[in-house]
TrEMBL record:
GO cellular component: cytosol
Name the UniProt record assigns to this protein: Thiamine-binding protein domain-containing protein
Thiamine-binding protein domain: residues covered: 3-93
InterPro entries to which the protein is assigned, alphabetical: MTH1187/YkoF-like, Thiamine_BP, UPF0045_domain
Homology family: Belongs to the UPF0045 family.
Gene3D superfamilies given in the database record: 3.30.70.930
Length: 99
C-alpha cells in the first residue's frame, strides 16, 4: 500500500512556521527504512498496512509532543500483491504522457 499523509501542528514556531515539528515527523518516516518521498504538501510511504500505519502513528506522536493538537490528512492506495508502486505509478504516467 501507498499512504500519502500530511501533519499539521496547531502550534506554530515563533516565526509562524510549522517546519520544525514537521521535520521531526519526516525524520521518523526516513528512519523507518520504508520507501518514501516528501514533497511540498505530503509525505508518501509504501509498505504493508501494519508497518505503514505504525510509522504514521509515530510521526503523529512526534508532532503531538510539541503541539497540543495535530491535524492529519491521509490518503491510501491499497493494492494487495503490488510493491514498488511509489515509483512505478509515476513511471507509467510518464510513459503515457510520451505516447
Amino acid at each position: 500500500m501507498i499512504v500519502a499523509f500530511s501533519l499539521t501542528p496547531s502550534a506554530a514556531d515563533d516565526d509562524g512556521g510549522v517546519h520544525r515539528a514537521v521535520a521531526e515527523a519526516v525524520r521518523i518516516v526516513r528512519a523507518s527504512g520504508l520507501p518514501n518521498e516528501t514533497n511540498a504538501m505530503f509525505t508518501n510511504i509504501e509498505g504493508e498496512w501494519d508497518e505503514v500505519m505504525a510509522v504514521v502513528k509515530q510521526a503523529v506522536d512526534a508532532v503531538a509532543a510539541v503541539s497540543p493538537r495535530v491535524g492529519l490528512v491521509l490518503k491510501a492506495d491499497i493494492r494487495p500483491g503490488h510493491t514498488g508502486q511509489l515509483s512505478a505509478k509515476v513511471q507509467r504516467l510518464e510513459r503515457a504522457l510520451g505516447e
